[in-house]
């Protein structure tokens, strides 16, 4: 019970009722007295002059990349601890004011040298959380057919390969946008964006930068240069590919984002980060959306449900089972394969439900029996015999769970048809369960109470997290927990401050979480995605006929309409 000093009460089955009463009196919403975060002991030795110089350089780079420091200013040594605290706030780190290992690791990474224009509001904001979102430069392109050309190439790899990489990098952005970006031809009157390679000297550690010249409102054709530092070896096309996508983001009018997983975060970790909804939201704000924003991929009045099977972040590779599935009233299950074709993976009128996670798909029959599908084309394995007590099944992490009419939750043992019961507060029927990536099992009970148990769910391991008759649904995404209340508000459990925080109050009727994403469907049928910034949701669809939404861990979204039509978000 180290984490929850507040409002969470250990609940052994025998004395649950009294615990529930107690939690009601200290209901978690809202509280003005969050427990302070413990401060870890600093790990770096402040006496090292070499360290201090390097740390100061890193802090300056960080500040300039976010527009927190005027170009000609430096941070005085005495002000460094406060500056470090400001960075720690963005990094979600304890604010110790001490430059630690994590900062050193992150700031030693390849980085972009583009400096953001000084933003006084942001720079002087001390004590409150800086806004965690994309930042727009201001000016944008005033035409929709944009051109680019290379001023010169690096000698590190063939120019045709450089052209292919840059062209693919532009496509990363234009796939969501109602604009085109093409290589300039001899006939083009003007080239908008120039690409060049330049040696920047030993003291410059940035991999690339983009300089931006605008007439105030519009980016100026021919004056936008993406410059790659030719002192680095660009033979590593992983680094080249990612750097190009990031710099192109600047050339479209984006500054650095404070969302660490976004393309526009200024540090690279040597992997190719996929386009993040924060990046998409940013360019959509500037250039609008493709019309239509959704592409229909199936239309069958019999389609009852869609399910996305997505390998968890802890698994090393994606599985051949991963992907989108639909379930029809005839009992048929179809998989949307990588070629964009629906392939039948089963067709049995007894099938009542499908679920899946982490490279495995499951189905439940009307008689309560349960089947598992782990290899495309292979036979379904029967892992649960007929049982009148089975209500439904839920796949999460590498587990499959069933909710039972006797009020218990059980999980498959991994062999034969043996299931292990997970003890829970007695006489409390489970209304819904949800399981995080690290297998923490959250259980919404019929009373509205929310309890949770951590893997491996030892007896008596349930903790009461909330007691509120208004709780109607729960969702998890990664390790985050959310609940929906009967008044239509969506509430997030802030595990750092130990508080419930209302993140939406707009008539939600359903929530769906996956990885870092949370979706909310409103009474009016519209579908929204949480941006991670308080009170800020992005509308994905405004139609009144949405019947369900699912997503994957990279931000792709599919919607099921009441008519049975299935669509994919393209913009
Ligand atoms: C330098 O700082 C790092 C952390 O940033 C720390 O691990 C290391 O011990 C420090 N070295 C000296 C000599 O202070
Ligand atoms: C400056 O920063 C604030 C707070 O982060 C932000 O709301 C505002 O849009 C920024 N201004 C400009 C011109 O980017
Ligand atoms: C590319 O052109 C720039 C001038 O824009 C020059 O400084 C640089 O040395 C050239 N790079 C190569 C590889 O020729
Ligand atoms: C962009 O690159 C061209 C060619 O190297 C150069 O002439 C021009 O000055 C650069 N523009 C800016 C704003 O750096
Ligand atoms: C980089 O982009 C090129 C061109 O699209 C592609 O062929 C190559 O596989 C990419 N490299 C990596 C590591 O993804
Ligand atoms: C799993 O995540 C929960 C938050 O949902 C956290 O409280 C718990 O400590 C995590 N458990 C492990 C084993 O990481
Ligand atoms: Zn940048």
From TrEMBL:
Residues 137-289 form the Peptidase metallopeptidase domain. It comes from Pleomassaria siparia CBS 279.74. This is Peptidase metallopeptidase domain-containing protein. InterPro entries: MetalloPept_cat_dom_sf, Pept_M10_metallopeptidase, Pept_M10A, Peptidase_Metallo, PGBD-like_sf. Its cofactor is Ca(2+); Zn(2+). Can bind about 5 Ca(2+) ions per subunit. Binds 2 Zn(2+) ions per subunit. One of its GO terms (biological process) is proteolysis. Residues 33-43 have a biased composition (Pro residues). Transmembrane segments: none annotated. Residues 1-16 form the signal peptide. GO terms for molecular function: metalloendopeptidase activity; zinc ion binding. The active site is at residue 247. Zn(2+) binds at residues 112, 246, 250, 256, 264. Keywords: Calcium, Hydrolase, Metal-binding, Metalloprotease, Protease, Signal, Zinc. GO terms for cellular component: extracellular matrix. Pfam families: Peptidase_M10 (PF00413). Ca(2+) 1 binds at residues 156, 230. Ca(2+) 2 binds at residue 192. Residues 32-56 are annotated as: Disordered.
